[in-house]
Amino acid sequence: MPALLCVLVLTGSCDLLGPGDKPPNRVLWEVSVDSAGWFGQPADDGVQVFVEADSGIIALNPLTGARNWYANLHIARGPGAWNIVCRDGAVYMIDRYTIFALNASDGAVRWQVTPVARPDGAYIAVDDRSVYLGTRDEDIVALDRATGAERWSTSFVAEWPNGGVVIGFGVSGDTLYAAGAEDLTFGKERAVVRAYDRITGTQIAEYQSADSASSAGRQVTVAGNALLVSDLYGGSFIAIDRFTMRETWRVVGDPYSFGPNQEPVVSGDTVFVGSADRYVYAADLQTGALYWKTFTGGSIDHFALCGNFVLANLFTVAVINRRTHKLESYQIDPDGSSSRFPTSGFAVVGDVAVVEGTRSIYGISCR
Question: Is the distance from CB of 344 to CB of 40 less than 8 angstroms?
Fold first, then answer.
């Protein structure tokens, strides 16, 4: 899905950036890797960044790009994990059908499990107790974080005649939130977010989108009383009251385009979103009122906040100033003339963002 959405449609940097001096080169370092082109979401522990490349996970120093360690998890196959999660000294990832837990310090495997119900293309989430994932049987499975043993499982789609899919998760307190989509007739989908007791897997409540052209994208962002979800097919992003499970506001983008795929990101009272409709949005967390939106020129699949900037991956990295709301520059193949371009999400450590591309991994300064 990310590959389909990241369709580059740059219209010319002069018109977008405006007159003035040549924008700064923010690429601090570039490290070549043999097997790259990963479309997943990297992770960090505040000191290292973890990416999937070269048939496994690489731990990098974000300031220099130096490789701290490498764990070979599969042989002669390109990267395919949807995301990596780092928590409390461990790194977690699904490699096709096997879930791995590794030491963040040296990459040693703590445990690996291949469930009977094979993992699907859902993003994983980790809390202080469990690793959460979706399976090809459309179940949600909670694994013990320390051992990989199954704690509980529950069906996400049991009552749906046409089935559906689990996409991602969010956790707050003792509640697990699972985002997905119910398959309807004629190729339609309906976004669904469910709340579960994270200890037992018992369903507590549910939100369903009112229309039938919507799909909850990736993870669920929990921000105070709100659950923030991207609606890929509905061309919007929404806030759901997590106690009533009712929609409180929705920001609709270009009606003739796909919407955001990555989950919204919150800073203070502002919600940031990068969308496939080529805009970066900033909206009020409480009301959804739009503060500003900036045209980037390309379909956005991944984005991140880094210092005073929003970085958006549209097969080049668009750098948007959060104060002026202006597109400052494109980084990494800014004119689209190279076969080296960014593909993954961003991991941000301090004022450096790390992103993987078709042949390399890059560090980008956000100063």
Answer: yes
